[in-house]
Amino acid sequence: MKESELQLISAVRELSRTRFAGRAAQFDQERRFPQENIAELKRLGLPGMVVPSHLGGLDISVEAQVRIMEEIGYGDPSTATILGMHCHTVAAVVQLPPASFRSAAIDEICRAGAMLCGGNAVPLAELDGRRSGYRAEDRGDHFVLSGRAGFATGSEGATYALVVARLSQGAGAAAARPTDIVFTLVPAGTRGLEIHRNWNGMGLRATATHDIELVDVCIPKAQALCVPVADVQRWRESVEQGPPSLESQRQLRNVMGLLGSWLGLSQAVMDFTVGFLGARYGKSAGAPASGFQGVADQAHIHMALGRAEHWVETGRIVLYDTVSRLETPFTSKTSLDLQVARTLYHLRRMCEEVSNACMQLCGAHGYSAVHPLERMLRDLAGYIVMRWKTDELVAALGRGALGRPIALHGLLGT
């Protein structure tokens, strides 16, 4: 890594382990968007860290991005999740065809720290995705957008919402095909854009992962891109089926970044557990005749803690090994997919094992609101409950071992 990247990581580490960690409990309790944390990340230029340098961004290396996300995840997982999903959305905008609104937004991200959110999942209260999503009607010189979608992480602090809408036949749209897709960035505060503050997750409470509803939002055509769905499908097929390249492999940087935040939080859980066990003596009030025994002196504690330590350190090795491998083109798409699946599986199992072991090691005293462990474990569950299920990953690894193609769901796109 470059010296500038090492300095940036050091600055983030200092912030995360002091101010971010100190604020995390309050943000969690109040379910409040961590505006103060995001403001400090903006001062470091991190909203533009995945933007190429020729577009004005920091264009940091994949390793530096993962290290930064690891450090933020250690101090406040909600802040890490907001930045990670912002970067995921920024990467999608960067990949859009050239357009004036796209260029202006990227410039604002790099110059002023503009933040993006992208609620294009099923709304929180819905189970049937067929009734949700955004629609666009062609009204001559503008589009009219309506609909509702969920999981717009960071919505309370976003400057723009990335909207992907299906174009339907509307008045004055005789030439439009119903299968065209409209991409646009809707500014916060636009009339007809409503953020439903309905995120009430058990973990990651401060992420503002709300639903966004659009009601007759008017967007000039100069502020949107209308792309035939066939072109979108061809692009996806070229990405999913084409041979690996350094450019395509580096598109995995945001997935690796999210895994970095998993690693950071797992390390924070381990550090708390080690400190807690070292300070704990006895289980009952009052001194027994034989005197108190330090919990950390017991063999079964050593064994359980050793297993948890193994998962954290092997998780670190696996993650950063994959990050380094992304700098050399893989021989085939299957070999790349298998490496990613192995990494996702190992880091997910790390979270599961560390969570289970540390909760049992600290017991009821540790798992109370007096200590941060309860919040940390809720956040750790929040990380892994939403994507890349363990059984799904195991099945993918098995198919890959048989030489069959595999598909990974979630932020990887299928």
- DSSP helical segment count: 12
State the assembly state of the protein chains: single chain
Helix content: 40-55%
CATH fourth-tier homologous superfamily of the largest domain: Butyryl-CoA Dehydrogenase, subunit A, domain 3
CATH topology descriptor of the largest domain: Butyryl-CoA Dehydrogenase, subunit A, domain 3
Residue-averaged pLDDT:
91
CATH arch. level architecture of the largest domain:
Up-down Bundle
Which overall shape is indicated by the principal axes computed on the Cα atoms? globular
- Total of domains: 3
Overall CATH class of the largest domain? Mainly Alpha
Strand content: 5-15%
- How can the largest sheet be summarized? 8 strands, mixed
Low-confidence stretches: 172-176
Q: Tell me the series of helices and strands, N- to C-terminal.
A: HHHHHEEEEEEEEHHHHHHH
Distance between the termini: 32 Å
Number of strands: 8
List the SSEs and their pairings.
Layout: H1 3-30, H2 35-43, H3 62-75, H4 77-95, H5 100-112, E1 116-117, E2 133-138, E3 142-152, E4 160-168, E5 181-187, E6 193-196, E7 210-220, E8 224-227, H6 229-241, H7 246-250, H8 253-279, H9 299-325, H10 333-366, H11 373-385, H12 390-401
Parallel strand pairs: 1-4, 2-4
Antiparallel strand pairs: 2-3, 3-7, 4-5, 5-8, 6-7
Structure description:
The chain has 414 residues and is an alpha+beta fold. It has three domains: 3-116, Butyryl-Coa Dehydrogenase, subunit A, domain 1, CATH 1.10.540; 129-227, Butyryl-CoA Dehydrogenase, subunit A, domain 2 (Beta Barrel), CATH 2.40.110.10; 242-280 and 296-401, Butyryl-CoA Dehydrogenase, subunit A, domain 3 (Up-down Bundle). The protein is built from twelve helices and eight strands. The protein has helices at residues 3-30, 35-43, 62-75, 77-95, 100-112, 229-241, 246-250, 253-279, 299-325, 333-366, 373-385, 390-401, and strands at 116-117, 133-138, 142-152, 160-168, 181-187, 193-196, 210-220, 224-227. Strands 1, 2, 3, 4, 5, 6, 7 and 8 form an eight-stranded mixed beta sheet that branches. A hairpin with a 3-residue loop joins β2 (133-138) and β3. α3 (62-75) runs parallel beside α8. Mean pLDDT is 91; it is low at 172-176.
